[in-house]
Protein 1
Amino acid sequence: MTDRPPVRVAVLDGPDVRLHQLELPDRPPGQTDVAVTLAAICGSDVHTVQGDRPAPPLAALGHEAVGRVAAADPDATDLRGAPLRPGDRVALSMINSCGRCDRCTHGLSMKCRSLFKYGHASASEPPYASGMLAELVRVLPGTPVLVIPDDVPDALVVSAGCAVATAVAALSVAAVGPGDEVVVTGAGAVGFYCAAMLATAGATVTVHDPSPQRRELVAQLGVRTEACAPEPRSRAGDGPAVVVEASGHPDAVTGALGCVGVGGHVVAAGSVSPGSTSITIDPALLVTSRIRLTGVHNYTADEFARGVDWLLEHRDALPVDRLTAPPVPLAAVAGAIAAVPTASHLRLTVRP
Ligand SMILES: [Zn+2]
Ligand SMILES: [Zn+2]
């Protein structure tokens, strides 16, 4: 331990979210300290706090953030080999994979056998400062980090490491081309970014979400919206080529399978809380209509980088002020997490 002042990090302590004064040991070689300038609260943080997903004691919360390098090795680089120097602004990934195991070497780095996820580990175990709802996050070697220009607003890139990269991953499996008809169910952050990316790729997108506020936000992208669930495929088997299920509602997965056209592809990216729900599927639906169903969870380093590039390329077209609420101080993090389910913005944010 050193005589540095403690770092304030948001933790889940029993059922309560509180700020923890973390006495951080010296930075081990290879690790990079990033001072968080803006962090966002993801729905997964809410699930963790509500006990819907397992969490270790003193779980360090938060996995969407942007910040500035506070300390790094002299030869540290970002994902593309650019030097990482103190003061550099960086977009952060939430996942760290080993790059060597059988899954990492077979295109499944997002399911690495020793996968580490920020915002899901204990603040009492290395690297300790592993949550991003914090003043500082300690980034492990191999975690995708990208230097971003100084003029990019924090709010534009704050969700790069979860919602944006997950949207890239969801669309990567579906091979959507210009003019393809695509349905997105759920207009939370992942659904919003899927719709936005599909629109910029020239697809014909319809987003289904019961929330008028979310529909209005998506409509700003020039995308069609519907309040109701998608119509079942026609008697002739016609329907959208791709359905991206981003709501996480089990009924929406069944609905997607019943709506996608013959030969179509359902990408399920919303259901991340294991065991809480179940659905009944008629396998003949998949078989006789030649439907593919692909689950997508997490993303690769390349998908993270493509997400950051897409954000920078489309920064002027995105309604960032409507996506992210004005930040609250870190001391108000517990109230902000509690306010997520009724928030009018897709992301509530915290500025440490
Ligand atoms: Zn998330
Ligand atoms: Zn691995």
Protein 2
Amino acid sequence: MLGPGPLLLAAARSDTVRRLVSAAPVTRPVVDRFVAGERLADAVQVVTGLVARGLDVTLDHLGEHVTDAAEARRARDAYLALAEALAAEKLGERAELSVKLSAFGQALPGGHDLAYRTVLPVVEAAAAAGTTVTLDMEDHTTTDSTLAILRDLRTRFPRTGAVVQSYLYRTEDDCRALAAAGARVRLVKGAYQEPTSVAYRDRRAVDRSYARCLRVLMAGDAYPMVATHDPRLIAIAGALAARYGRGPEAYEYQMLRGVRPDEQIRLAARGHRVRVYVPYGTDWYGYFTRRLAERPANPVPYTQLTLTPERQVYGYVVVDAVLGWDQG
Ligand SMILES: Cc1cc2nc3c(=O)[nH]c(=O)nc-3n(C[C@H](O)[C@H](O)[C@H](O)COP(=O)(O)OP(=O)(O)OC[C@H]3O[C@@H](n4cnc5c(N)ncnc54)[C@H](O)[C@@H]3O)c2cc1C
């Protein structure tokens, strides 16, 4: 039988489950742990609080897989408003933007060019606000397109950041190319369900790949953004930074809102730059479901998930995961 991780990732792609979960009254308090709120003002308030505690931020206006170009333009407009708000609040030095190109139409016919054209004004607006954009990485079918768009954006905006996923076999090579180009690179394990033809499925293999990629990034000319909550990999990153003579200004740690907040503060207090990934907006379902799939990392109190019979699908998927966490 499938474990809760794959089930939850399958649920993330189901419209029926999406409707049930989004309507569930029990969901909101659980979502709030990971998502800053629905409105831009909520996000700005959360950013201000994190910055006051010595943390940097990357903001994600939630949304992915738009179905037409008009929706892609709406995603663009939400980010333009965000860049304007960061400029007005003088938060550009501390808060950058994370974008998913599927929200900019990447999966539509002609999507590569559409995504580039639609994201470009956001990258320009971010630069005008004194900040930059990192292109989140989605499933492996998008990797080539996303890295090609990154290369094009970096010709004018070299601080535009990449994300690479250590579960993909290709990623060590991608790290070499990005390090040679001197790019800002966020290294993650990867959050999508991928086939064994392209990705390691064994957790230890993913971790070993992460450590190899870290070495490539730390040894080269990249600016490494070490995005993990994993204490062993955080320690390895620190040791590699020391070995390759990098001070705390020459790399950073990144973690998700709602995951290991005490560790975020502890690292920042020790002089490290720590950036918190803060999603906001109404379209939280896909993001939320991926976080639930990462058990045992994200325990949610079982009592918050009392379910009515008509929410059986939600109950099956989520409670299975929660029971797994309780035992994990
Ligand atoms: C800033 C950021 C941006 C990201 N962007 C992307 C992206 O663009 N594309 C993408 O595919 N994925 C992205 N991810 C998600 C990433 O791929 C992983 O799915 C996610 O970070 C979980 O992996 P992990 O490295 O934290 O390790 P895990 O394997 O989930 O956890 C490893 C260990 O970390 C510790 N740990 C984790 N959570 C907790 C907790 N709540 N409390 C205590 N200990 C804990 C535990 O010791 C655990 O065993 C991003 C993650 C971050 C942090």
